[in-house]
Amino acid sequence: MNNYDEKMKIGSHTLRIVGWALGVIVLIVIATFIFNSTDVFKKDGDPVQQASELDIKTFSLGGEVTAINSDSLTVRTGWVQKGEFVYYDRTIKFTDKTEVLAVMKTQILPVLNQNPLDYFQVGDKITVYGDGNPYIVDLITATKVEVNR
């Protein structure tokens, strides 16, 4: 093989690499255009309003107990709205079927108090589970509550 053949071999290899690189760049430009022009990926509007329109079947909600009433708790919770965390108070109603669990580092135990609300303290961090959409009601009926201790 002479010197000219070696240069042609190296030149065609370089040309092939440049072709692949240009192809990848074109694909990235096309994908970016599609991504930016599709309404599915745009997040305009109020996220709480959008969430209130969803058909949510069950949910979990984390918060801090701020008040204890005779048949309910008031919990401070919140969500991100327009780039900032906004706090909301929600009333958590208990029924005779509400399961209350104490969550500790090493175990999870059911709360066996006659009145489970006696177990709670202001400042407790809890997770509430329920049915329906928590974005459209202020009074939430809990199916399960976990207390972090």
Short structural description:
With 149 residues, the protein is an alpha+beta fold. The protein has helices at 3-37, 47-52; strands at 58-68, 72-81, 84-93, 99-103, 108-110, 125-131, 139-148.
CATH domain class of the largest domain: Mainly Beta
Radius of gyration: 28 Å
Q: Number of domains in the coordinates?
A: 2
In one word, what is the shape? elongated
CATH architecture of the largest domain: Beta Barrel
Query: Secondary-structure element sequence?
Result: HHEEEEEEE
Helix content: 25-40%
Main sheet makeup: 5 strands, mixed, barrel
- Our estimate of the beta-strand percent is 35-45%
Which parts are unreliable, with pLDDT below 50 for 5 consecutive residues or more? none
- Termini separation comes to 79 Å
Content-based structural category:
alpha+beta
Can you tell me about this structure?
This protein is α+β, with helices and mostly antiparallel strands. The chain has two domains: 3-41; 47-148, OB fold (Dihydrolipoamide Acetyltransferase, E2P). The chain has two helices and seven strands. The chain has helices spanning 3-37, 47-52, and strands spanning 58-68, 72-81, 84-93, 99-103, 108-110, 125-131, 139-148. A five-stranded mixed β-barrel has the order 1-2-3-7-6. The longest helix has 35 residues, at 3-37. The mean pLDDT is 84.
